[in-house]
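Illustration: Glycoside hydrolase family 78 protein.
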Amino acid sequence: MHETRLLTALVIGVILGCVTATARPEDFTPTGLHVGTKLDPHVSKFATFTLDGTNPLATLAMESKSRKTLTVHSISSLVSNNTFRVETFNVTTTGRLSSFQVQGGQRWQSIRLLNVDQGSVTFTAVRLRASFQSLPSSDLPGYFESDDSELNAIWKLGTRAVQAVCLAPKEQPASWLVDKDGVVVESQRPAVSHLTTELKNYALGFDAQVVRGGLLWGVGWPIVARLGGGILLLLTGSMPASSFLNHDYTALPRNTIDVGFGRVLPNGTTITNQHRFSLPLSVDENTEYRFRTTYRANGDLSVAINSMPVLNVSVASYSAAPESLMGGFGFGAWQDCRARYRNVVATDLLNGTVLYANNLTSTSTSESDAILAEYGVQPNPAGVCPDGAKRDRMMWLRDLYHTVRIVSASTQRWEVLGSTLEAQIQTQLPSGEIALAFPIGYEAGLKVGLRAFGCVGVYHYVRGSGDVAHLRSNWGLWKRTVEYFVAQINGTDGLVHLPNGPFRGGGHGGAASSCITVLVLDKATELAEAAEDAAAAEKRRNTSVELRTTIQSKLWNDERAFFSTQTITTTSPPPGTDCVSSRI
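Result:
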């Protein structure tokens, strides 16, 4: 659920709707409303409503991937509102309030009044302006109807969901603002400059001002964040009397910097291994300060503000530190915070050479576009299918495998799926690996490889769309990805040992990694035939047969009747049992 809190004070929670690319983006309005003291899905028809001390919480049934708009009819005092998408509204006047960021994909939204003992707020409308285009299920190429009304309703809901998953170019808006005074960032983890990911032993200088709450920046970050992310530096400012009512001063005290590792924003406790340092000065809102952060490949980290030292530590000595201490830098803002950055310079700590310089200011569209593209926060440059409507700025290759098959039966957005696969294959490393996850705001071609699971997805794409031209033009790259899998077959036990395992573990010789490789080999055989590469097709077919035989002789658990995640002494499975056809 998406929640919004108001500083007369409210909290709202939102869901993503679904869309295709031929209809005009629409406003989504609530289909139901409940006002009370707790969340309640038993809603009535939407109407003008008031939140006060007796009924501080509204539950709204919504469907959209969008920016939220609230229309305030009347208020009796200042109020506040906050969302899962990291926004709090300070309601000081009547009229329309709009979100800074796009909301995520959620079915329900809530609005909570925070200062329940000080006033009330009345809303005449709550709307979500969709960032993508939508068609009713009856207008889609795919169709389903049965004599079961519940199944029909599920199908219609699914078609809306899959429309939200596939976005035409620029349907996902930029998440930074750029102007002549710098960049404005709100409620976002550090966005990393792709020009800095190979830096080490550098001093990072920048000017920053707290617009609201505090600052958030990071060093040692890759483009595709590790599960632990990079090193986060979270500064909480002086927090004046006008600060939001929901700020937790125990978790994030005034005038402090927290150093830790992490990548999510719900609250300060989600930073792993948090270390706190007091500031030598008061960092006030709307006042610019000069920051200097030094970072060495061995993990030595220091921070100074206006030349006054704040901290000097070795993060390598911290427990739960990132595996790699090399990576780029980026800028963000914590939950409910808003910050401005400019005049960024990185210099070599050894010889003072300027390694990077960008004022982050703009007086033209081209300058703004270049900054947004460098930091991966631009509107999606090409059509893309992210991992559902929730992860709205990230494409996940494994989940694309499911999306391809669903799209083929519903929206048939082949042009968007094709550009998604094109962007993914451009991330390929010489080993054959392609990016498991890739932020949609960067240009295609950045080398950020992880594990490779794209062949099954491209198989279903070519099979459904008939786009053999895409396959043939990229066959050399997809073929290399298949060869990466084959290279992971262990010469001793004949099973597949993936370096980091498949999605749910079992990477060393178990059914999860070995059986998914059989599936890849089977699909790669058909792809090779479609690409008119007979030699590759025969080679992959033979490898698949050999691997299947090994799996059946070493992984079948006769007692439990399934293929095991580890090698066991066993009998062969019943005739016709196959680790792929039996869904492993």
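Reading the tokens back as a structure: Residues 7-25, 265-269 have pLDDT under 50 and may be disordered.
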